[in-house]
Amino acid sequence: MAAGQASTSSSRHRIDLDESEMPTRWYNVLHDLPTPPPPPLHPGTHEPIGPEDLAPLFPMDLIAQEVSTDQYVDIPEEVQDVYRLWRPSPLFRAHRLERALGTPARIYYKYEGVSPAGSHKPNTAVPQAYYNAKAGIRRLTTETGAGQWGTALAFACAQYGIECEVWQVRASYDQKPYRRMMIETFGGSVHPSPSELTAAGRAILAADPSSTGSLGIAISEAVEVAAQDPTTNYALGSVLNHVLMHQTVIGEEALLQLAKIGETPDLLVGCTGGGSNFGGLAFPFMRERWAGRMSPQVLAVEPEACPSLTQGTYAYDFGDTAGMTPLMKMHTLGHDFVPDPIHSGGLRYHGMSPLISHLYETGELTAVAKPQSECFAAGVLFARTEGIVPAPEPTHALAAAIEEARRCAETGEEKVILTALCGHGHLDLPAYDAYLHGRVTDHGWSSPDLQASVKDALSRLPQLV
Ligand SMILES: *Cc1c(COP(=O)(O)O)cnc(C)c1O
């Protein structure tokens, strides 16, 4: 594309793809990794797990995707059909935010808030429900933090006529009643976690009747129920390889959209809870970087209250609190670490995707932790300039993007910044209300309480290299 043409089109606000340009394959980063990540281990034997170990919880199609090293996996027609309800999603240039910051940086955001759940989660909920229904499964159980994953899975299950049962972290169940209502509207059922319905939940409640819960506890409950019923499977909204692969539709579309206006990013920035929206955006760009076609810096942003990448240990740990899942080598704060109840429910996970952890360990990406007050300030500035109220989670990425754009204002650098605006905050307005009326406090790493509780949780890690 000619330079003149590129600069005209990059002045556009919205860059869309036609339906016919929607990617028809997911990208599997495992194929291109410079070194392979360590394998997951069986929680009892500590040997690498095989497909049969996962079969009580997942259908074979998803197990095959979890371990596949094929570079691409075709997106089934039945899944593309549902994707077309909201995909391709728009890419926006944040002209008004740039002007407010007085920055020469060009800021782009890939907006996943247009999906039925209002976040990126349906990108994987839909194929997971599809493969389970195809395998004859009648019910899926799952956990949810802020409620986005539960909403996405309830919607996806409704598409293929299967039931959906959700354990929602108590803190979010109480703070965010609209998510529960939305899950129920899509046909799912919801229990606050910890619950009396499972042995894992009862054990937590016996020790602490006022437990606000955690994703780790809710996972234990959903896994326990699925493991006991052959017609019920479990679905995980983040962390696993197949989940991150499904999310690569985000990055594949963004690549096409930026190419339309002749831009290549210098900085990719995303928020990381379990790593799926971040991996989904970043992996296709990393492929391009490994192929020598671009050289973006890749930055993960996490909350200071749950800093698994920047303050956790890279070790084998359980994905859940009760220790029922396979052991995964990942950056972890310890499987029984319970973070303070910050407003970004989706970022309150003790661990991190093994793929993201491996890429962090091998220097392919960097990470930073942000306090929630700085994130809400970024979210409010974004709302007032761009007109979208972001979910609390992606305000972490916005805070880092804004910090970098301000730096560019000082240096005059015309950096191209791309972020995933992975969800809207329409159901998180009480969190904004708390911020706007001075009721948001930071639970930063400088707090001796947090340091002590992480140290304590890490001391109970399984003793494996
Ligand atoms: C679930 C969620 C997250 C955190 O999960 P990742 O796997 O890290 O993406 C972040 N933002 C939103 C809007 C979510 O729904």
From TrEMBL:
InterPro entries: Trp_synth_b-like (IPR006316), Trp_synth_b_CS (IPR006653), Trp_synth_beta (IPR006654), Trp_synth_beta/beta-like (IPR023026), TrpB-like_PALP (IPR001926), TrpB-like_PALP_sf (IPR036052). Pathway: Amino-acid biosynthesis; L-tryptophan biosynthesis; L-tryptophan from chorismate: step 5/5. Its cofactor is pyridoxal 5'-phosphate. The keyword DNA-binding does not apply. CDD domains: Trp-synth_B. GO terms for cellular component: cytoplasm. The modification N6-(pyridoxal phosphate)lysine is found at residue 121. Keywords: Amino-acid biosynthesis, Aromatic amino acid biosynthesis, Lyase, Pyridoxal phosphate, Tryptophan biosynthesis. It catalyses: (1S,2R)-1-C-(indol-3-yl)glycerol 3-phosphate + L-serine = D-glyceraldehyde 3-phosphate + L-tryptophan + H2O. Its EC number is 4.2.1.20. It comes from the Bacteria. GO terms for molecular function: L-serine hydro-lyase (adding indole, L-tryptophan-forming) activity; pyridoxal phosphate binding; tryptophan synthase activity. Residues 85-423 form the Tryptophan synthase beta chain-like PALP domain. The keyword Amino-acid biosynthesis applies. Pfam families: PALP (PF00291). HAMAP family: Trp_synth_beta. The beta subunit is responsible for the synthesis of L-tryptophan from indole and L-serine. Tetramer of two alpha and two beta chains. NCBIfam families: PRK12391.1, trpB_rel. Belongs to the TrpB family. This is Tryptophan synthase beta chain. It comes from Microlunatus sagamiharensis.
